[in-house]
Structure formats: structure tokens, C-alpha cells
Amino acid sequence: MSAWEDNIRKVVPYVPGEQPKVDNIIKLNTNENPYGPSPRVEKIAMDMEKLKLYPDPAASALVDAIANYHEVSSDKVFVGVGSDDVLAMSFLTFFNSGKEILFPDITYSFYDVWAELYKIPYKAVPVDDDFRIIKEDYHGENGGVIFPNPNAPTSIAEPLSFVEDIVKNNQDVVVIVDEAYVDFGGETALPLVDKYENLLVVRTFSKSRSMAGLRIGYAIGNPKLIKYLSDVKYSFNSYTMNMPSIIYGVESIADDDYFKETVAKVVDTREWFKSEIEKLGFACPPSSANFLFMTHESIPAKEIFEKAREAKIIVRYFNKPRIDNYLRVTIGTRKEMESFLSFLKKLVKDN
Ligand SMILES: *Cc1c(COP(=O)(O)O)cnc(C)c1O
243-254 and 60-70 helices cross at what angle (nearest 10)? Predict the structure, then answer.
């Protein structure tokens, strides 16, 4: 290695699910929502001339729309370029004690990447054999806590009392609850934000609002937390939110009927698909998300993953300890799931 390479920040990056460049594929690998954004978003005529201007650095229109939607004041809302951006900023802002931060061993695989990037010590706390988070394991001294609820890739949601127990027992540090999937059946921690000033709830437009391509995420928390987060953001990049994202985001929030209707369709399809695959010898934890975490009694997950790919159906397989016999399958349209089900029926029959 050349001398100049000694002082480089070396990281092992997060690897997102594949975005295939070919058509005619059933894409069930990255937890996108198959229904697309609200028709109101499509109807917006953007004034392209406006793109010559910098966007509003505070993204106030979007912040206000989100605040209004959740019935909180705007000083409790922070927006970012997807929740990944919000979370990355939060790690940088809140996890500075030098003590280990805690998160589950089976969880969103970006957490350890950010911890490594920022040189934050961390401990991946094992979930139990049913993939449940053990709340008592988060009661000891630590530098902060983060977990998704519902958790990913397990799809399991814990009740509000469970989340409150963790927040209550960690009032000297910041606790982040990543609610990327909460709209599909989880119980939100938002009612706790007024009670605990150390709680930050993070959300995204990528899953339930079907706008992964726009990159909108947000956090809701005590105004002091939001101020600290904003100070870091403005020290990093003033214009994280681009103008189209702000405009389209506001429009998406305005169409609550469409939002609820499409989320309900995903949930219906999930429950139907789950009952069908259980007949084929698959098992999965109860899902409160837009995906299932499934394993088969005899066919290895890796084999199913590879054969599905040959059949032009892409699901997610994690070659990691404890979960290497599971597939994470995004809930697509009813038609897509019918195709995947036919594939699975044939696979099981031929096995
Ligand atoms: C998808 C996901 C995110 C990131 O979503 P963005 O597209 O960056 O908003 C964050 N956390 C979890 C648990 C996710 O699954």
C-alpha cells in the first residue's frame, strides 16, 4: 500500500438490494411499494424555471406538511434525503459518548456501517431464538440505542409499552426508533415524544408512500433534538432536500385516502400470501411490515433464492449467521405474489 493510503478513512460500505437493469422481472427484493405514488403527485406541473434557484434549505413546506399530518409543531420535525440520511446525521449528532451504542444483532444492516464510518463503538445485542428483541438487554449503561420497530428483516413489531420500557430505562442517552415499516401494522412511538425528550422517531416515504425514488425521510422528536440535528445538517450540506422532493412530498402527504388504500392492499396481500405459503411448509414470524421473513422446512433458502432468480423473481437473501436459511420477500401486487406462489408450489412439488 502506498504511504498516502495509510491515512484514508477505509470503510466497508452497505450493499443495497439489486436494482436490475432488465424488464420483465418480479422485483420483491428491496421493500418498495408496488402501487406507486399518489395520482396527485403525477398531476403536479413543476415549474422547471424554478430549478435555477437553490431550494429552501429548511424544506419548510415539507416540514410543515409532515408536522400538520402528525399534529405536532414544526420545530419537532427534521427532514432528510431518505431516512438513511436522517439516520446517518443522527448517528453523527447523537452518538458521541465514546460508550457502546446498542442495536439488535439481526436488524437493518446499515447501523453497523454508520457506526464503523463514524468510529462509534457498538454492540450488536442478540435477539432471542424467535428473533424477538429482549428489552432488558438494553437496560444497562450504553452510548445510545437504535432499533427498527417493526424490525427488519424479521418483520416483527413490538407494542408501545415495550418501546417505552427501553426509552424509560435510557433517559441519559438518545434512543432512536426507526419506523420505516410502521404504517403496515406497527404501533408508533410518536405519542412518547412529548413525554421523553431523548426519543427520536424516524420515518420514510420510501415504503408506505411508495416514493423510494424521491428520497424523503424525516425524524420527529423534542425541539432540542431537532435543533442539534439541524445544526449538524447545516454544517454538512445546506441543501439536502431538492426542490422536486419538497414539492412532490407535500402532495403525497395531502392524499391520505390513496395512502391508506394502498397500504391496506399490501397488508391484505401479505396475509393471503402468508397463509398460502404456510400450506407449502414455509414458516415466518407474524409480519407487521410490507415483507415476510420466510424459511422452508426442507428446501434451503439459498437454493430458493437462486432458482427464483432464474425464474426472474428477485427476493432478498442474506448470507449471514442466524438468518442464512431465510428469505426476505417484499409484498408486491396480488398478481406478482400469485406468480411467486406458483413458482413456490412447483418448487416444493419437484423437491
Ligand atoms: C428501507 C429502510 C430505511 C431507509 O429508507 P430510505 O429509503 O432511506 O428512507 C431505513 N431503515 C429501515 C429499517 C429500512 O428498512
Answer: 20
Secondary structure of 91-151 in the HEC alphabet? HHHHCCCCCCEEEECCCCCCHHHHHHHCCCCEEEECCCCCCCCCHHHHCCCCCCEEEECCC
Among protein residues, the one with the nearest Cα to ligand 1's atom 5 is 83
pLDDT higher than 90, residue 342:
yes
Alpha-carbon distance values, 185 to 33, 95, 141, 190, 326 (Å) = 15, 29, 31, 15, 21
What does the pLDDT look like over 130-161, one tens digit per residue?
Answer: 999 999 999 999 999 999 999 999 999 999 99
For ligand 1, residues with CB inside 6 Å are: 31, 82-84, 108, 148, 152, 178, 180, 204, 206, 212, 217
Residue 162 CA to ligand 1 center (angstroms) comes to: 22
Q: How remote is the CA of residue 239 from the centroid of ligand 1, in Å? A: 21
Query: What's the sign of the alpha-carbon dihedral 162, 165, 168, 173?
Result: negative
pLDDT in tens, 168-187: 999 999 999 999 999 999 99
Picking from 33-42, 212-221, 256-265, which range would have the lowest pLDDT averaged per residue?
A: 33-42
Strands (E) across the chain are located at 26-28, 77-80, 101-104, 122-125, 145-148, 175-178, 199-204, 217-221, 282-283, 291-296, 313-317, 327-330
> 313 is written with which cell numbers?
423473481
Pocket test for ligand 1, best of 85, 204, 252 (most atoms within 8 A of CB): 204
How far away, in angstroms, is 73 Cα from ligand 1 center?
24
Q: Is 43 left (phi over 0), alpha (psi -120 to 50) or beta?
A: alpha
Position 45 confidence tier, pLDDT thresholds 50, 70, 90:
confident
CA of 54 to the centre of ligand 1 (A): 26
pLDDT of 1: 81
